[in-house]
What does this fold into?
Amino acid sequence: MKAIAILNLVLSAAIVVAHDGHHDDGSQMPLDYVRFPYQAQYPGDNTVTADSIFSGITTFARLPWVQCLGKDRSEAFDIAFIGAPFDTGTSYRPGARFGPAGIRAGSRRLTLYGGYNVPLDVNPFLSGLKIVDCGDIPVTPYDNKYAIKQIEDGHKELLHRKTYSPLGNDSLTGQPLIPVSKDGKHHPRVITLGGDHTIVLPLLRSIYSAYGAISVIHFDSHLDTWKPQVFGGAPSSQAAINHGTYFYWASQEGLIKNGSSIASHGAIRTTLSGPADYENDDDSGFQRIEAREIDTIGTDGIIKKIREVVGDKPVYLSIDIDSIDPAFAPATGTPETGGWSTRELRTILRGLDGLHIVSADIVEVAPAYDTNAELTTMAAADVLFEVMSVMAKTPLGKVQN
Ligand SMILES: [Mn+2]
It folds into this structure.
């Protein structure tokens, strides 16, 4: 007993000495050669990196975990990742409740080499913005109506928090930027990890509270504007809100900007109940880009179409992983063959550089159907890397006219 006590004493003393004089970053990283993995740089710049990305508790891209909805409610940030593990609005394969955990696992290697995005010439992790992983919104699997309210409240809680960084000045003119929001405040951006696509209804309700009716860029192989009678048959008011009808409801509630500022689907290739589905989609305020258009107009043509529709308006970005072909992303609720490659979707997302993307999500990742090689969760994580890079380059502000 005595020997053990002495050994303990010696060990504690050694730990104190080891900590003394070194950076204490407050994270659970006792090895002083790993400071912040997401600030990784090669030797010669005072930090060794290529280690540890596969160890520890998994957050998105190994970003710091902040309990934004719990004890860290006062913590400010600029971009927050948050999970919405909801999949009880799914028509075919369930399992997207495990999407947030899967996407985080697929994101572990994002910062292995430091996270510099070559085509966009930006490192979002070193852009000065405070980017955190807020964990998941608690979502009940027993009551969709209640769960949808939980998602709205959780998102709102983050969206209305103070930003960590000020909006700053316009890089061209040097004039101070003013927020693009409707309430005149500078809001942080939230990137939601779904969850099935139903979650976008509560997310857009939250977005409305800051931005009013919003333009939407929607990548999906499906319309998701179906009337409840067409999709699911609407046997009850709860069943009427599902992952094929949430945009119908969002449009009915006036959450989506209609008319001249129209949202645009990309990657559409689903079969329909009939041509009337497209008329209904028109009524909901969407313009469509078909998946097969990539064969004729290419990624450049698709980027051009999206930018023409959205212009410089604030825009919400919703990405269904099934916009990517199941060859590249099989783990999803309602797969459709004939889709875009991961490379093509990433190129198109980089083409949104300069747009005011106020918040975003990726949905319908159901890891149970993935390959052992984590194809889908890796694709989802890499897609979000492009989104956060675009966000890091463009502040949510404009110059006063
Ligand atoms: Mn969808």
